[in-house]
Amino acid sequence: MDDVVIVGAGPTGLWLAGELRLGGATVTVLESRTERDPHSKALTIHPRTIEVLDSRGVAAAFLAEGVRIPSGHFGGLPDRMDFAVLDTPHPYTLALPQARTEELLEIRARDLGATVRRGCRVTGLTGDGVELATGEVVASRYVAGCDGVRSTVRAAAGIDFPGTEAGTWGWLGDVVLDAPPERSAASIAGPHGAVMAVPLGGGVTRLVGSDPSCDGPGWPGELTLDELRTTVRRIAGTDFGMRDPVWLSRFGNATRQAAEYRRGRVLLAGDAAHQHFPAGGVGMNVGIQDAHNLGWKLAAVVTGRAGEDLLDTYHQERHPVGAILLEHTRAQTALMTGWTPEGQALRAVLSRLIATVPEMSRQLAERLSGLDVTYPSGRRVPEMSFPDGTTLFERLRTGEHVRTEAGLVRPDGHLG
């Protein structure tokens, strides 16, 4: 019997697996897909997540391969937030396809001793683990549901997932552009819609956006290249010479949050715990940070270094972060879909404030980047150097608490 079974081998589940192994827990990851999904829903790695990677000594590969973008947007507004003002050694986002992020995280999890099993569809919970579609029971003391918005684990545990259904839709196309925008992460918005272009490498660019034709509760249908070309041309005045689509998709603004992140021996993280419109590209980041909070705690409990009450702090600390995430993505969705003259005026006013009020821009950047998260136990502790030449992030790579002049720093980088 393993200490923990993780259902879902996305970024959240794989980071959790590595954290559990770092803390001495035995862990098996179960994934229904036989192969990694080549289509990357998530693309953006935010500064706090880069810090998390750095604090475990695995940031180098991400920094070597990701495209660095030194600013961020709020609701697709034309004036962007300058990340240079952020108190971090990583004042930028990285654009890296989710498939590659998952590959790197799986390498780490396996290197630390986690078992990753693919082609294993979990159908429910049992008294001592989970049951697969084949009838096999995989036994464990705890079950972590990292299995997305349609989480089997959440449903089987009877955890409510209240919220709102989709009322507007966005679209994305990973395509080749013969005449791409000159500026990385270029965005164009107006009454006809909004589109952002982000280079993915290998000659492929992601075009992502929304437009008035996609408003409404009904599914607007599968996206075609002709529709994408027509829509982008209407918004930007050009289709950038798009051709050879790699992936075309739509996504909605259904917004939900699990009522409980822990029920007994079942815990939820990532999209299984929160669903939202992908405004700002923060979803994967919050999921990894959920896992970063949970991993050291669950490992400490299963190895006898802490009592079960430590697991209660997971919901207490991360549920409010998820609630704020939903609030901000809803606000950004309202801005991104403000097609009326009034909506366009609101966008113009807020955009000018970002450009002219540094404190407003900084606070939004801290929230978007994940650097402002503070728990009842204390704030996130920024990188610091010690007299012996080591740094905080280096010392945190053991997965243990670190004593500093600021106080005792937990394995997840917060005071406590």
How would you describe this structure to a colleague?
This protein has 416 residues and is of the alpha+beta class. The protein contains eleven helices and 25 strands. It is globular and about 60 Å long. It folds into two domains: 2-163 and 256-369, FAD/NAD(P)-binding domain; 169-252, Alpha-Beta Plaits, CATH 3.30.70.2450. The longest helix has 28 residues, at 309-336. Helix content is 34%, strand content 27%. The strands form seven sheets. Strands 1, 2, 8, 9, 10, 11, 19 and 20 form an eight-stranded mixed sheet that branches. Strands 14-15-16-13-17 form a five-stranded antiparallel sheet, covered by helices on one side. It has helices spanning 11-22, 47-54, 59-65, 98-111, 152-157, 225-236, 283-302, 309-336, 341-356, 358-369, 392-396, and strands at 2-7, 27-31, 44-45, 67-69, 71-72, 81-82, 93-95, 115-118, 122-126, 129-132, 137-145, 163-164, 168-177, 186-190, 193-201, 204-215, 242-252, 255-257, 262-263, 266-268, 274-275, 374-375, 378-379, 402-404, 407-409. Strand 14 and strand 15 form a beta hairpin. This is Monooxygenase. Keywords: FAD, Flavoprotein, Monooxygenase, Oxidoreductase. InterPro entries: FAD-bd (IPR002938), FAD/NAD-bd_sf (IPR036188), RIFMO-like (IPR050641). Its cofactor is FAD. GO terms for molecular function: FAD binding; oxidoreductase activity, acting on paired donors, with incorporation or reduction of molecular oxygen, NAD(P)H as one donor, and incorporation of one atom of oxygen.
